[in-house]
Amino acid sequence: MVKRLVVGAHYGIKDWLIQRITAAYMALYTVIFAFAALTLPAMTHEHWQALFSGRLMQLLTFLFFASLCYHAWIGVRDIWMDYIKPLGIRIALHVATALLLIGYLAWVARVLWRL
Amino acid sequence: MTNRVVHFRIYRYDPDKDEKPYMQEISVEIEPTDKKLLQALVKVKAKDDSLAFRRSCREGVCGSDAMNINGKNGLACLTDLDSLEQPIVLRPLPGLPVIRDLIVDMTQFFKQYHSITPYLINNDPPPERERLQSPQDREELNGLYECILCACCSTSCPSFWWNPDKFVGPAGLLAAYRFIADTRDQATNERLDNLNDPYRLFRCHTIMNCVDVCPKHLNPTKAIGKIKDLMVSRMV
Questions:
Q1: If you measure CA to CA, which chain A residue comes closest to B201?
Q2: Does A7 touch chain B (CB under 8 A)?
Q3: Structural domains in chain A, sorted by start
Q4: Residues of B in contact with A12 (CB under 8 A)
Q5: d(CA A110, CA A38)
Q6: DSSP state of B144
Q7: Cβ proximity of A9 and B198 under 8 Å
Q8: Do B196 and A5 touch (CB under 8 A)?
Q9: Which residues of B199-219 are buried (b: 16+ CB within 10 A; e: fewer)?
Q10: Mean pLDDT, 10 residues at a time, over chain B (236 residues)?
Q11: I need a surface site. Which of A37, A76, B33, B169 has the fewest CB within 10 A?
């Protein structure tokens, strides 16, 4: 590979837009979650479990974590792009970040639907 | 009104003589008519002529005397001496290679500026007189065309510090929007394509140091936001 500086990947606006949309959804979910948690009859394991066994709450919560993971993917990737210059290390970190976030999301799904 | 003394700590580095940079303490007597930092700096130069800095118009038009003044980028000619805490600490603009003392190598900065094709692209045959705009269309260029390319903004931007070779920087992006917003320009799509890149445009994380330091009170962050808005409206 020749050592030439190359820029012009022609992507970025979608990531930027998705980061904003996921942030807006996470803000909305925070309000919904706070309302649902504060209006529980009592802070007991049974009520907590009942709250998260509702289909809608499960879906909203899963969407929240999916948004969080996608949001974090763009943010963390940007950090690697800023500070990690060697290409090999950067690709390795990108892959590690992606796998970790996918793993987290799978874990969330397991926790949510095991209830 | 009497003369008074101003104390300085100035970054000095002459690569031909100095092994590494050092801070020089120096005081000068200024006259009551010396209101701006540049006037005092000229007095410093008279006292120690080995000091190197750029200046030209001495009224905020040429953008030559941009430097880091008490930790904040600005133009020496526009900075009131009275507004500064002493000793006044002067350093070269951060993030660019130092040629000598307060003079930096702006090659990288201008490379980025040139990369956005900072000129009107219009393939129609030129009219008899000039290409006209409505007053409303012309209004859109206010706050964009006034940039003097002093580099205060780009060199205060952390994103530009980390990626000066890839990120266009606030000055370049403000200029980019100046041509995107110009109704006489016909290359809007190409300009947006040129910027849709994770480095060239999207290194901007709206830190807004650029807005904070701009000596002409321009708002690169707002211009960058408008570029993003246009990209979104083109996409969805």
A1: A12
A2: yes
A3: 13-113 (1.20.1300.10)
A4: 196-198, 201-202
A5: 25
A6: T
A7: yes
A8: no
A9: bbbbbbeeebbbbebbbbebb
A10: 93 96 97 96 97 96 97 97 96 97 97 97 93 96 97 97 96 98 96 96 96 98 97 94
A11: B33
